[in-house]
């Protein structure tokens, strides 16, 4: 299941996101979206978790949780 993570702090790294979601299960892919001109975070990322139960657990546990002082939003990504 592919999840969209929004409202990330600009200082949050891809590795930090991967670790955060790995606490709830296996993460096969994690992509922090960067601005092409500045190479800085745009404040959102995509996380791929192969096990739907683990992905659902991560979604419910992390949606509206605080990460680096920001309240993140997690939802299922549209394909």
Automatic annotation (TrEMBL):
Domain of life: Bacteria
Boundaries of every RRM domain copy: 1-79
Classification via Gene3D superfamilies: 3.30.70.330
Protein name: RRM domain-containing protein
Taxonomic lineage: Bacteria, Pseudomonadati, Pseudomonadota, Gammaproteobacteria, Alteromonadales
